[in-house]
Amino acid sequence: MKILKKIVILLIIVLIGIQFVPTTYNTSNEVLETDFTKIYNAPQNIKNLLKTSCYDCHSNNTNYPWYSKIQPGAWFMENHINEGKEELNFNTFGEYSGRRKKSKLKSIISQIRDDEMPIASYALVHRDAKLSEEDKAMITKWLNNIRENLK
User: Fold this and answer.
1) Structural domain count, the chain
2) In this predicted structure, what is the pLDDT of residue 62?
3) Under 8 Å CB-to-CB from 49, ≥6 apart: which residues?
4) 100: domain range?
5) What is d(CA 125, CA 122) in angstroms, rounded to the nearest whole number?
6) What is the dihedral of CA 60, 64, 70, 74, to 10 degrees?
7) How far apart are CA 20 and CA 94, in angstroms?
8) How many angstroms from the chain centroid is the CA of residue 137?
């Protein structure tokens, strides 16, 4: 029993201690000229859906919820956001080559259609990020049109 008590106390000390380890926040209010919604002149409804369902993980500006300040969850979020931006960053989409843009658009369409994006854990916590069938059809139609017109 003494060992269990020491382990619990040690765990509590560690959990309190890690709260003081800083994380890097992904925040910028600057809308770049290379932003996806800007270069393709996204209609407001599409822009709203993308910002609500995609931009937190795939842009340079994340809206952080209250629990993002609690470790180890903040580290998980930081890692997830960095991976998301590495895969696709809507703010720098205009810098991609034509081939990469086509590939990314194809991937976005496929992942939206197959309910892979937004990921389930994100949609669970952010209920408004879940895309309805109507939303998915509207976005994929718009994205397909862009993809077909790319040179």
Assistant:
1) 1
2) 86
3) 131, 135, 138, 139
4) 2-149
5) 5
6) -30
7) 38
8) 20
Per this entry, what is the length of the chain? 151
Q: How far apart are CA 105 and CA 16, in angstroms?
A: 43
Query: Is the CB of residue 105 less than 8 Å from the CB of residue 150?
Result: yes
Distance CA 65, CA 126 (A): 10
pLDDT tens profile 30-45: 777 899 999 999 999 9
Cα 64 from Cα 55, distance rounded (Å): 12
Say how far apart CA 9 and CA 24 lie, in whole Å. 29
Q: How many C-beta neighbours within 10 Å does residue 73 have? A: 13
CA 95 to chain CA mean position, Å? 19
Which pTM was predicted?
0.81
Comparing CA positions, the residue from 9, 70, 10, 59 lying closest to residue 31 is 59
